[in-house]
Write a structure and sequence with these properties.
- The complex is a heterodimer of chains A (233) and B (738).
- Chain A has a single domain, classed as Rossmann fold.
- Chain A is built from 5 helices and 13 strands.
- In chain A, the strands form 3 sheets. A 9-stranded mixed β-sheet of chain A has the order 2-1-3-4-13-12-11-7-8, with helices on both faces. A two-stranded antiparallel sheet of chain A has the order 5-10. A two-stranded antiparallel sheet of chain A has the order 6-9.
- In chain A, strand 1, helix 1 and strand 2 form a beta-alpha-beta unit.
- Chain B has 738 residues and is of the alpha+beta class.
- Chain B has a domain of 216 residues: Phosphoribosyl-aminoimidazole Synthetase, Chain A, domain 2 (Alpha-Beta Complex).
- Chain B is globular, with a radius of gyration of 26 Å.
- Classes of the chains: A alpha/beta (233), B alpha+beta (738).
């Protein structure tokens, strides 16, 4: 299992992702520089959090046009696994790999806090090592995590089971109080139509060890690995 | 030639006597560029004119010390397992008063580059903030601007901001304090020096282009009292955190290249102070060609180029022949890199504009700023304040229950979680204890170790007794480290004072530094770095003297730490440092209760350093043995507030029951005695703790039990847990909502 972790100027989660998948879980991982227009030998591509290109214009907007994103689109269209969290999710939306957009938090402030999420389905390559309905802790840290899309898109995401993570309270209720940023339907993460591209605002790579407060992010990387290794055998 | 005008001298904050000294040293009148250079380098910010002599008295040795205080941009200490830590605190008070967002943002940027210059990866930030009371539009504007600036800049650069403190007092209304501390980590002792190796080494400016922003920041903003602040707005720098983030990564890669021998940040006084300080450290001269400096504005004069404080720039010293790979690296990161000069034999700072030589001065005349010594008497007003009888205060028309709620709602005590959650405090995957604890705790990846960091300052206590108050600041910072289980290893100090040309401020400075020194020696730890911000005054008043102490602690086993929340039903609550939870009237000196309930700051604080070190040693040992389940020190708001805070954070009630006190409830509940820490343990461990304390000759006693849904203290306090929690958690947001 080998992860490719993209580095844009201004990314800051790439080292944390590397730590989580490699130091903690022992998978191979390598960085991919944003100017690369092709890459080879990776089983999954990770887009990190941060402020790529300073998030100038709109968050993720410039990164979506970087050379590496052409290669990532090809990789995704061929069925490769692509995962983005935080700024990575924003880039996936900006590049059209995922529908909708992430706009300013409704309270207009940056929000860094523990996050409580429900895993809506375990039948995806990213969540197979969770159970349906698991309530998990993964931190959030963003100023623009307010997911918006037209009604038709939201209905489609919901009815096709493409809302993968949802913010809930500690009683597992998707309430307004549990919603950290105004996101529609408490959506924290969604998948594309074929289920091989996932974007989410919370940071699974920060939930990698009990000492840091949670290790609930690890099953996500383990799910990808299980799918990849399962496909090979 | 006509004598130089007072106006011009004022512009660069040089006195006429200093100007005469410059003529004497040069043997001629300085030209306009040189007046600017001297103004910057002889400013308090760069030259430490009024503090140098005092700072020399601080303890500066330790087995852990790898880079001595003052030798480089920040001190460096060994933390074990092949890792070293560089850390420093710096002020950005005046820029933040003028333009709070950019002032605070560039304060972060500046201290991060100081740490980066040591070859360290910045791994944590903290902020110490002071404002006037938040029931005022301007103070709320300043607070919101500063917090937004810290959030906007800090979050973008990928360095966790793990908290700090926010304090309100009238004296800061005209002159807020914005101090930032950065901690950086260095592996395998690969420490960078801000110096060149030999004559011929290249001076390479990297990072952002140079503009007209921030000219006279050091000499103007940082060296004047504050009457014309609005007109100085243009001297505030504008930050670009994206460039800073890219610069951090590029510089950390650059120091791995062969031939890169030195690194220095461009901070106050820009290229001038960076290059001249490098020359001084290298015992070499320098030639700089201002025409080579990349600019973002046209028609900048050499004066403007040399004194610009444009952000996100660093200077590298590189062996000739090694620059091509460096240029490739900076091109990869889309950053400018340009050779702007060379190090030379001799001691001249030579500045040219293309082929025209425009200045040549000896290095030491520029760097050897005058030193002012003073020994001012204790002011009479202070003796009066200290001798106030606190056992004979006017009767209060308030119940102890309501007094506790009032104190928990004070903006100085209420939870600041609505601020901390605007800062990314988790990035880099090290944060074990997030903001809101006694100290933040960050583990060191690849080891079992963790670093504890805190910033503390108490202007009221330093105001009432500069020597004891400053010693308390050191003691409390170390106590906060001990409360998470970490052993204090080093300090950094941010000295925020008023105009040092007046005797009362001089008395505060000399006494406060003496007090810091005494306390640091008692803990046997050095002060490894620091910053002096003087002239913190408005036309109405000087600020309370506010030394901010940043402290660094090491915990050998990160798993064995403690946090402040109470944990489980029936746990025993044990007080370390005293046989009684009660406190006498003198402990009301400078307390929050005196300020909130009596609207008075008076009395004379005291500290017993021998008791303090014993209390901390015992607490650390209980935590690292795994016996103490929680620890929290008694500080602002006294016993009642300490218990309430730990209970709220733990989401559980508590009962304190001890033999009935004989004095008034005010000092017993809300007095602020030093050297007291509340720990909790499984009730079966109570005897072990009390015996351990006895063997260590340290007072300790059980004062209560965890549990229930009330906060009770004898028959004095009895409040439902939820009302206490709601007050503490919501009051700050309400206070700043206006």
């Amino acid at each position: 299992m080998k992860f490719g972790i993209v580095v844009f100027p201004g990314s800051w989660s790439e080292r944390d992702m590397h730590y989580a998948v490699s130091d903690v879980l022992g998978y191979q991982a390598e960085y991919i520089w944003h100017r690369e227009s092709s890459f080879d030998g990776f089983d999954a591509i990770l887009l990190p959090g941060g402020f790529s290109y300073g998030d100038h214009l709109r968050c993720g907007a410039i990164a979506a046009h970087s050379p590496v994103m052409g290669a990532i689109k090809e990789f995704a269209n061929d069925g490769g696994f692509v995962f983005g969290s935080c700024n990575g999710f924003q880039i996936l939306c900006e590049s059209g790999l995922l529908p909708g957009a992430l706009i300013r938090n409704d309270h207009l402030s940056f929000r860094c806090s523990p996050g409580t999420l429900r895993v809506e389905t375990s039948s995806t390559p990213f969540t197979s090592q969770f159970s349906d309905g698991d309530v998990v802790a993964m931190p959030i840290s963003h100023g623009e995590g307010n997911y918006q899309a037209d009604e038709e898109t939201i209905d489609m995401l919901e009815s096709d089971g493409r809302v993968i993570f949802r913010y809930v309270d500690d009683q597992n209720r998707a309430t307004v109080e549990a919603n950290p940023n105004g996101t529609l339907n408490n959506i924290a993460g969604i998948a594309n139509e074929h289920g091989n591209v996932l974007g989410m605002m919370p940071h699974p790579e920060r939930a990698c060890e009990p000492l840091l407060g949670s290790s609930d992010g690890n099953p996500l990387w383990q799910s990808i690995a299980a799918t990849v290794d399962g496909g090979r055998s | 030639m006509p004598p130089i005008s007072q106006e011009l001298l004022d512009e660069v904050a040089l006195s006429r006597a200093e100007y005469e000294a410059i003529i004497d040293r040069l043997g001629r009148e300085p030209n306009p560029l040189e007046i600017g250079l001297f103004g910057a380098l002889w400013s308090e910010h760069c030259g430490y004119k009024h503090t140098k002599a005092l700072l020399r008295t601080l303890p500066n040795t330790s087995d852990r010390l790898l880079v001595a205080p003052g030798a480089e941009n920040a001190g460096v200490v060994d933390i074990g397992d092949g890792y070293a830590v560089a850390f420093k605190i710096e002020s950005h008070n005046h820029p933040s008063a003028v333009e709070p967002y950019e002032g605070a943002a560039t304060g972060i940027g500046g201290i991060v580059r100081d740490i980066l210059a040591m070859g360290a990866r910045p791994m944590a930030l903290m902020n110490s903030l002071r404002f006037g009371p938040p029931n005022d539009d301007r103070q709320r504007y300043l607070l919101n601007g500063v917090v937004s600036g810290i959030s906007g800049y800090g979050n973008c650069i990928g360095v966790p901001n793990v908290g700090g403190e926010i304090v309100f007092d009238d004296s800061y209304a005209g002159n807020p304090l914005v101090n930032a501390m950065c901690v950086g980590i260095i592996k395998d002792a690969k420490i960078m020096s801000a110096s060149a190796d030999a004559p011929g080494d290249l001076i390479i400016l990297v990072g952002a282009k140079t503009g007209r922003d921030g000219i006279h920041g050091a000499s103007g903003l940082a060296s004047r009292t504050f009457e014309e602040q609005a007109e100085l707005r243009s001297t505030v720098q504008v930050g670009n955190p994206f460039l800073e983030k890219v610069l951090i990564e590029a510089c950390l890669e650059a120091i791995e290249l062969p031939g890169v021998v030195g690194m220095q940040d461009c901070g106050a006084a820009g290229i001038t102070s960076a290059a001249v300080e490098m020359a001084e450290r290298s015992e070499l001269g320098i030639n700089i060609d201002v025409a080579k400096v990349h600019r973002r504005e046209t028609e900048m004069s050499p004066y403007e180029v040399m004194l610009s404080e444009s952000q996100e720039r660093m200077i590298l010293a590189v062996k000739p022949g090694h620059e091509p790979r460096l240029f490739d690296l900076f091109e990869k990161w889309d950053l400018d890199a340009e050779i702007i000069g060379t190090f030379e034999t001799g001691n001249r700072v030579v500045i040219s504009d293309a082929s025209e030589r425009i200045s040549s001065t000896p290095v030491e005349t520029l760097t050897d700023a005058p030193e002012y010594q003073f020994n001012s008497p204790k002011p009479n007003w202070l003796s009066e304040l200290q001798s106030r009888d606190l056992s004979n205060l006017p009767d209060l028309d308030i119940t102890p229950n309501d007094a506790l709620l009032k104190l928990l709602a004070s903006p100085n005590i209420a939870s600041k979680h609505t601020v901390w959650r605007q800062y990314d405090h988790q990035v880099q995957n090290n944060t074990v204890i997030a903001p809101g604890g006694d100290a933040a705790l960050l583990r060191i990846q690849g080891t079992n170790r963790a670093l504890a960091v805190t910033t503390d300052g108490n202007g009221r206590l330093v105001y009432l007794n500069p020597r004891v108050g400053a010693a308390i600041a050191v003691a409390e910072a170390c106590r906060n480290l001990s409360c998470v289980g970490a052993e204090p290893v080093a300090l950094t100090d941010g000295l925020n004072f008023g105009n040092p040309e007046t005797p009362d401020i001089q008395y505060q400075l000399q006494e406060a530094i003496a007090g810091m020194s005494e306390a640091a020696r008692a803990f046997n730890i050095p002060v490894v770095s620091g910053n002096a911000s003087l002239y913190n005054e408005s036309p109405d008043t000087a600020i309370q003297p506010t030394p901010i102490i940043g402290a660094l602690g090491v915990l050998e086993n990160a798993q064995r730490h403690a946090t402040s929340p109470l944990k489980d039903e029936e746990d025993a609550i044990i007080l370390i440092g005293s046989h009684t939870p009660w406190a006498d009237a003198e402990t009301l000196a400078g307390s929050e209760a005196m300020s909130v309930l009596h609207n008075t700051t008076a009395g004379n604080p005291t500290l017993d350093l021998e008791l303090e070190t014993k209390v901390q040693t015992l607490t650390r040992s209980l935590i690292t043995q795994g016996i103490a389940k929680s620890a929290h020190d008694i500080s602002q708001g006294g016993l009642a507030v300490a218990i309430a805070e730990s209970a709220i954070q733990g989401n559980i009630g508590a009962t304190i029951q001890h033999e009935t006190p004989n004095a008034d409830w005010l000092p017993n509940l809300f007095g602020e005695p030093q050297s007291r820490i509340i720990v909790t343990c499984d009730h079966s461990d109570t005897e072990t703790i009390l015996q351990t304390a006895q063997q260590a000759n340290t007072p300790a006693t059980q004062i209560g039990t965890v549990g229930g849904d009330q906060i009770r203290i004898n028959n004095l306090i009895n409040l439902p847990f939820q009302s206490v929690a709601d007050t503490w958690l919501s009051a700050f947001e309400q206070a700043i909502a206006g």
